[in-house]
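Suppose a classmate hands you a notebook page containing two proteins, each written out with its sequence and a corresponding row of structure tokens. How would you begin to make sense of it? This section walks through that situation. The first entry is reproduced here exactly as it would appear on such a page.
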Amino acid sequence: MIELISLVYALVILILTKKDIRYGIGGYIFLCIFPNIQGREIFGITGFNAMNIIFLGVVLKYYLPRFSGRIKIKSDKLPLIEFILILLLLQITFMLRYLDEYYLLGNIRSMVVTFVELIVKPIEYYLILYFLYKSINSIKEIKIFLLILISAGVVGVIVLFWQVTITKISYSEIFWNNFAGHKNTWGVKVALLDIITLVTFLLTKNKKWKIFALISFVLGLGVLIFSLSRTAWVAFAVGTIFIMYKSNLKKALLFIPLVFIVISSTPLADKIIERMGRENAEANTSQLNKITAGRVEKKWLPQIEAIEENPLFGGGTVGLLGHSGYLAVWNQIGLLGLLITSYIFIKMYFDLNKIHQATRDKSEFVRIITLTGLTLLLMVPIINITCSVVFFRLNDAPSLLMIGFFYISGIKIKNIYLNEYLKKINFNYNVKQEELQVVK
């Protein structure tokens, strides 16, 4: 049944995409936050799913008119694209090292699967952001895409909420979920989503948006708590404190008792006590190892040893993930990759902060976009300590798309206001010239 629904959805979006590419972009975004909502394959054909079908339609809709000359190619490019391309080249190098180390070079199937997972699928997400950046022309359009983005996250949250509260899945199923993946992966996504809905609720004056944001926030909060992801919890707490600090929103303090209410109305406390008891039973391990859930001895130290073998280009056991975004990037694509990755996030933050300061007196929606983007970017370094939000890792792509959406929306808002300002200046200049002509 899910296969048929996915196919119908993809075909409808394709028909609409033929009319306007923004339908295709929106249709893709609606699926990409929790990709398994669509089913991985249609009729058992590998790679044949709604996301890929829609993506192909969007690519054709964007490039065919430009190749044929019907649409002139604009000179504006996606910010920071040069650094993303450098990371792509480093990732390709890592992929070749990975295939060589595991004796997979020459194995066509393994090479194709690895190429798709490490290169192709992450690029899809960035291309969608690129197409979005080139296609949106007004703040109203950004509003529509924000609604789609939140809705995409909420659909996944509803599925997880149903699993946790109605079907009452076990702790092991929460830890690794066939629908959403590892608890830290989907926990981080939900933490980001809850920040988006929290800022929207606090800043919007539109009653419909406020009600939608509040319902989405409460659902997301329940799922976030049940994720048992300490990384996601800490990141969300840091994000909430930052929102209160940046906007002097004392109303946000009201959400603290709401968290305790949600916890007290669920069997979460029993799960936390059970987990703590299991971890404390490991008496032979260090306190730091307990706090980091075994990452120090089992993940971080082997990763650091691998880095020490080749600190500039990464090295050693290149397949290690390390459960740390910093160590994973350094080990896989070297010190240069780590520096570029850090620079991109820092640059995005300062770019958005400038826009946030420059548009303080603008509409509430503009403040929602810029403040949310700043908060999400501030959460990244926290997340990357024990989890990851890094470029060119498929599991992190949905989180990066959410962050990227607010960044490019902020850049677009700046361009829109700049264009309006220049038009106004030009209009006033033309009026003065006409007045001078009349006087003469």
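The notebook's second entry, a different protein, reads as follows.
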Amino acid sequence: MAKPNVWEVVRRKEGTFDILHKGKLLRAEISDKWLEDELGRIGFCGQEYRDIRRQLEESDKAQIVL
């Protein structure tokens, strides 16, 4: 059985972000300045990006299940 298609964005203590897919680290220590670009490369833009930002503001972690 395949793992669920889960993406996570996590804010580190120093303010940078990590992006994980299915529990594996894809990108590490992304500055806030470049987070939107990195997520856009993966395919999260527009409303999806705004939803991720909202989750990060609430809990320093965003989870997207596709």
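A careful reader of the second entry would note: The helical segments are 32-42, 47-59.
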